[in-house]
Amino acid sequence: MALAFDEFGRPFIIIKEQEQKTRLRGLDAQKSNISAGKAVARILRTSLGPKGMDKMLQSPDGDVTITNDGATILEQMDVDNQIAKLMVELSQSQDYEIGDGTTGVVVMAGALLEQAEKLLERGIHPIRVAEGYEMASRIAVEHLERIANKFEFGVNEFEPLIQTCMTTLSSKIVNRCKHSMAEIAVKAVLAVADLERKDVNLDLIKVEGKVGGKLEDTELIYGIVVDKDMSHPQMPKQIQDANIAILTCPFEPPKPKTKHKVDIDTVEKLQTLRQQEQKYFDDMVQKCKDVGATLVICQWGFDDEANHLLMHRNLPAVRWVGGVELELIAIATGGRIVPRFQELTPEKLGQAGLVREKSFGTTKDRMIYIEHCANSRAVTIFIRGGNKMMIEETKRSIHDALCVARNLIRNNSIVYGGGSAEISCSIAVEAAADKHPGVEQYAIRAFADALDSIPMALAENSGLQPIETLSAVKSQQIKENNPCCGIDCNDAGTNDMREQNVFETLIGKQQQILLATQVVKMILKIDDVISPSEY
Q: Gene3D superfamilies attached here (predicted)?
């Protein structure tokens, strides 16, 4: 590279010619790809487990996020390398499908890549490594099925669901209130779940947050919370047995679609116009009163005259409510969204046992609570916290807990956490390697070693001696034939995860292994990276 000047004295840079550029191919390209994947995994490794560290991420706008959620960390990182982007997508796939285990899946993929690098250096072809990994992943998934336990739960007996959600929340910033948070998440999921079809629609669970108060003030509301207040300060703040008109039409006179001009040259004409406008408002308000509405929720605003008239007619109203919130209110109250006043009928009104306006602290913040709805299949988790970052991280934690509860309703099989499932799979895969006579057995053994990276990272992050702790737990599992022995991260005095109540969902753990294996196979099969300028 050299600096030169044109005839006008303007500087420009002369770069090397395209032919002189080197391009990585074959083993060098594979090693470069592996090192990119390992670099991403190394970032997340310290965030794994209940004692994992948090990451502080600063956006280009200066916004700061503090989290230890793998998917959030990778999503907000500015990644240029294409292989590193594959690792980001891997974490997002786990988040979309399962909702939990986003850090573990990346750490697992990084360990598989590390082991693959050793095999490539020994001269084993990457295709044989990929095939060996595929065999080993099938063995591990089948072994997880064998060591999994099923548990029964009902609408009133949901303690096992809470224990599993607590395992998810134990690695989050909310772990000091993990029992109450897990209970809120489980109750919310059971409120909207269809237990016959084993299906949960998480869109019916709204998660709202408000700065102020403390984390313990977080509550579950069997209804909807709207971040609005009554349109007039003198309107009643509490309405019992409300009949709600849900409108998407504005409280204002109709406007012509063409350009128009009105000439008013006398007082009489002005009064006529004003009376006509008032008649429009009167008719609209009277229409709502005639059908029996005791509360109006409107998507649009209305001017002071309409507001004043609503207050005088004793018809409370809420304005500027968003479309998503309107849909949730309609689902919860059993009402219909009405686009025109002419279509308003008593059958289209929603019912709620109690609608109240609640104030917070010494601020002027107010919110509308719509509770005891006709259809309670829409609920709200209302989070309080000391600052915005705390609330955002709590929302992410609650989302993970909701996903875990949903997965357990779909499939009520669990495995034990604390790395016990990975150690048990590692032992099973190691034993199965001897049955494969080909080169693949090296890859199968390497897969078993990679499985050990999760419990080792847990021990490392908990301040324990990683190799010594892992060896002790592994020998205990083999000696006692007990797949529940894991890493005692919380210093509870026992390695038995059954006694510590540390559970994870079976489908979440299986998905981790399958997704990590798929991405590693894809990376191993890339032996050349061609950029657009090289075509």
A: GroEL, GroEL-like equatorial domain, TCP-1-like chaperonin intermediate domain
pLDDT digit string (tens) for the chain, length 535 residues: 566 777 777 776 666 555 555 667 778 888 888 898 999 999 899 998 888 888 888 888 888 888 888 888 888 888 888 888 888 899 988 888 888 888 999 999 999 999 999 999 998 999 999 999 999 999 999 999 999 988 777 767 778 788 888 888 888 888 888 889 999 999 999 888 888 888 888 888 889 888 888 888 889 988 888 888 888 888 888 999 999 999 998 877 767 667 777 788 888 888 888 888 778 888 888 888 889 899 999 988 887 778 888 888 888 999 889 888 898 888 888 889 998 888 889 999 999 989 999 887 666 788 899 888 876 678 899 998 888 888 988 998 899 899 888 888 888 888 988 889 999 999 999 999 888 888 888 999 999 999 999 999 999 998 889 899 999 999 998 998 888 888 988 888 888 888 888 888 899 899 999 999 999 999 888 877 766 544 4
Q: Tokens at residue 494, please?
A: 């026992």
The token pair at 314 is 């004793």
What SS3 state is found at 3? strand
Cα-Cα-Cα-Cα dihedral sign, residues 124, 127, 133, 136: negative
Question: Which residues, 6 or more positions from 490, have their beta carbon under 8 angstroms from its beta carbon?
Answer: 50, 170, 462, 500
Which residues pair with residue 351 across a beta bridge?
243
Tokens standing for residue 388: 């915005």
Three-class SS state of 121: helix
Token pair belonging to 60 = 């280009």
Q: Residue 460: in which H helix or E strand, if any?
A: helix 453-461
Phi, psi of 135 (to 5 degrees): -60, -45
Handedness of CA 454, 457, 463, 467 (dihedral sign): positive
Dihedral sign for Cα atoms in the order 314, 316, 319, 323: negative
Catalogue the long-range contacts made by 142-149 (C-beta closer than 8 Å, 24 or more residues apart).
143/424, 143/425, 143/428, 143/429, 144/415, 144/421, 144/425, 144/506, 144/509, 144/510, 144/513, 145/413, 145/506, 147/415, 147/421, 147/424, 147/483, 148/413, 148/414, 148/415, 148/506, 149/413, 149/414, 149/415
Six-digit token pair at 461? 């992050």
Distances (CA, A) of 251 to 275, 277, 293, 294, 324: 16, 11, 15, 16, 20
Rounded Cα–Cα distance for residues 116 and 345 (Å): 68
Residue 354's H or E segment, with its range, is strand 350-359
Tokens of 344: 């308003």
Catalytic site residues?
69, 102-103, 400
Cα–Cα distance measured from residue 367 to residue 358, given in angstroms and rounded to the nearest whole number = 5
In terms of DSSP bridges, do strands 379-385 and 205-211 run parallel, antiparallel, or are they unpaired? parallel
